[in-house]
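Changelog excerpt

This revision adds worked examples to the README so contributors can see how folded entries look when concatenated. The first example is reproduced verbatim below.
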Amino acid sequence: MRIASLGSGSKGNATLIDDGKTCIIIDLGFTLKETVRRLQRLNKSPEDIDAILVTHEHADHIQGVSVFGRKYNTPVYLTPGTHNPERMGNVPDLNYINCHRSFRIGSLGIEPVPVPHDAREPCQYVVSSNGFKVGVLTDLGHITPFVEQQYHRCDALLLECNHDMQMLDNGPYPWQLKKRVSGLHGHLNNEQAAQLLLKIDLSKLQHLVVSHVSEKNNSAELALGAVNSALQPESTFTGNLVVALQDEGFDWLEVK
């Protein structure tokens, strides 16, 4: 099993998960041309993608979904609340999911996880194959007990570290936007992400990917500092720590 990213941040998001039999993309926030270009960097073609899973309807997560789905007849999975026909247009193979029920796509088991975010019916995903478990957790305003429960004992975890509170407070955003970003239905800050790591079982974790890092209200150094403080000195995590970049995402990480 392996994971990679086409890019992570407010300008576009897409995460690939591949177990050698089935390859999915979680979210697709890039134009079709840019998506194809970024897939080539990972030695993938559009025809290799078996399905697109959508977390919520914000543009940086759905910009390329409908165009890609139409051109390559790729199945799209999302909650009924996430589907906005006026924005997405026709999607030939559209599949509604219940965010409280697991399902399968080929050889991959999919566990949707409802999260608190300022969208109509948002969820994140835990994907499993051959005894391995990959968690994708971004775009939520706070950690609920259910979220904490679902992300125990992942083999790889993509975790949002969106903003540093001091940078957000002193940054250029208008007050209302600052309030939304830092609110209970906004985005995780560095300390919230670190607190989750202190609460979940990291004993199987091979890769921890710091994701959805704000270019205006955070830095990779601050996010890594917060995460490292949670991982030291008593943490069971001994794996690989990676930052998902907006322009480059990250290359394939093997889970084995």
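The second example, added in the same revision:
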Amino acid sequence: MRFIYRSILISGFLCCGFSSYAGTLCNDDETSIFDCKFSKKIASVCMARGDGLLVYRNGTREKIDMEISDGGRKNNKFYFSYRPYAGGGEAHIKFSNNGYRYYIYDKIIKADDGHDFSAGIVVYRGDKKVANLGCINNASIRQQAYSSITRESYRNIDTE
């Protein structure tokens, strides 16, 4: 069952552009907001330098499997939320597509031996969590997202 949902997550519908370096799917005229590496794919949230257009891409530099764009500030598809914790916090970028809600997250929790860091993408269909894909790199939501993306109330997305 998890394989089916993972296939839904990475199946795409638009193909475009190439990235400027291997760690991101952002184009040369975009700023990287988040880059998450999986074993064979990358998920990136990018912001156009001129108009602030946001775009999510998933795939490889050679083949984009999925691309979601907000179409400009008046057509918000991306929302940002944040909750501080004692010794850390959790940030989300949310967008929806074809009945699925995607939450890009990074989380820092104070632990006995320092801090635990985690980042990834949690996918919901309705109220049911169907995937939690963890990044294998040291991914985090960049500071620019905190001031640039439309805010919404924080929701617990069960990143465990």
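Reviewer comment on example two: The CA atoms of residues 17 and 27 lie 7 Å apart. The longest helix spans residues 2-10.
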